[in-house]
Amino acid sequence: MKTIKFFSYTAVLLFLMTSGFVHAEPVAEGALQAPAARPVEMAFPVVVSPENPRLGEPLTIGLLGAAREAQARIVSASGELLSTAPFFDTGETIDGAPVLAAILAIPSTAQAGPATAQIRSQSSVIATVPFTIEPREFFHEDIPVPQSSADLITSTDPKKTEEAEVLWAILSHNGSDVYTDGTFIVPVNTRRITNPFGTGQVFIYPSGERRPPSIHAGIDYGVPTGTPVLACAAGKVALARPRIITGNTVIIEHYPGVYSLYYHLDKIAVPEGSMIEQGVPVGLSGATGFVTGPHLHWELRVGGINTDPDAFVVRPVLDRVALVQALRR
Ligand SMILES: [Zn+2]
């Protein structure tokens, strides 16, 4: 974890503004160098974890004692906004101050190298933490698809547009509830991966036509139809219904802006709106929707950005104990 401590006039002012003592105009960017000698020193520690995320991985920013409406952003060296998320309350406090967190994602298509985590409040930057995005290699694959799947993609059914809008409304929604804790689990009892995360893929139709390249947004597990598919972590079932392209689909909300998705199920076992524990079946795997054979497509979205599910399995995306320890330093 990377920790910085931030002492400034801006911090004092923001504390006063958010605690209701004063009403002030937003502090302009660049005001961080303001008066060095102040009678009161306020610290807003910031933690970025992991310190050096790879392309396609989540990044969690912890913040102590700042404004609850603060926003986190990841900005590339060239100034491109890569990811943004509001802070939420972790339920932890240090000396009475709330420990806030924001979970963001490094897009798999971003440029590796130097980047900055920015914390903004009242449209001003109140803290910045430089970090490095580590590179990684992704596969490239030409995937022949049967005519029936090709027809699904090329059909102009308005229902597809409607379904896409419903999906996006869910994935871009940032609630404030934390439904889970700890590491996620792989949802099927196999390690047979038939298409890994981040693959640059080109679908080829029986006519020989090549579709424009796309990025594989999740992990495909080659399991036979009827294999139990388990919730990767506890959460709330945000969607559980058939869709044209993704077949029988389940989406679970885990953290604000963090969702897991399960595609092409043969059967759905959970109702929309229900709460589910980690390891409980969401359904049975299958071959519904746009597929070349039976498999489970498992996907993690963070603020709408497709993120490597394995990163959630190898470490907790929100480690409250580590966060509090790092912020106390
Ligand atoms: Zn897939």
Number of structural domains? 2
> Which homologous superfamily in CATH is the superfamily of the largest domain?
Glucose Permease (Domain IIA)
Q: Estimate the helix proportion, in percent.
A: 10-25%
Count every helix, treating DSSP H or I runs of 4 or more residues as helices: 5
Name of the CATH first level of the largest domain: Mainly Beta
Largest sheet: 10 strands, antiparallel
Structural class: mainly beta
Instruction: Just name the CATH architecture of the largest domain.
Output: Distorted Sandwich
**How many beta-strand runs?**
22
Q: How far apart, in Å, are the first and last alpha carbons?
A: 11 Å
Instruction: Kindly estimate the percentage of residues that lie in beta strands according to DSSP.
Output: 35-45%
Estimated radius of gyration:
22 Å
Poorly predicted tracts of residues: 5-43
Q: How do the SSEs run, as a string of H and E? A: EHEEEEEEEEEHHEEEEEEEEEEEEHH
Which ligands accompany this protein? zinc ion
Mean pLDDT: 87
What report would you give on this structure?
This protein is mostly beta strands and 329 residues long. 14% of the residues lie in helices and 39% in strands. Strands 11, 14, 15, 16, 17, 18, 19, 20, 21 and 22 form a 10-stranded antiparallel beta sheet that branches. A 5-stranded antiparallel beta sheet has the order 1-2-3-7-6, covered by helices on one side. The longest helix is centred in the middle third of the chain and has 14 residues, at 158-171. It is globular, with a radius of gyration of 22 Å. The relative contact order is 0.17. Residues 5-43 have low confidence and may be disordered. The protein binds zinc ion. Zinc ion is lined by residues 195, 216, 218, 220, 297.
